[in-house]
Amino acid sequence: MMPKKYATIYVDEDVLREAREIGLNISRICENALGR
User: Within a 10 A sphere around the Cβ of 23, how many other Cβ atoms?
Assistant: First the structure.
């Protein structure tokens, strides 16, 4: 596994709140969407 780097993304407030409420791992979702 490669080391992780800090990154900033901009996400709609409501989307971010809902994702956190249901326990989604936003970092993992981003990695998967970008094809690791």
Answer: 6
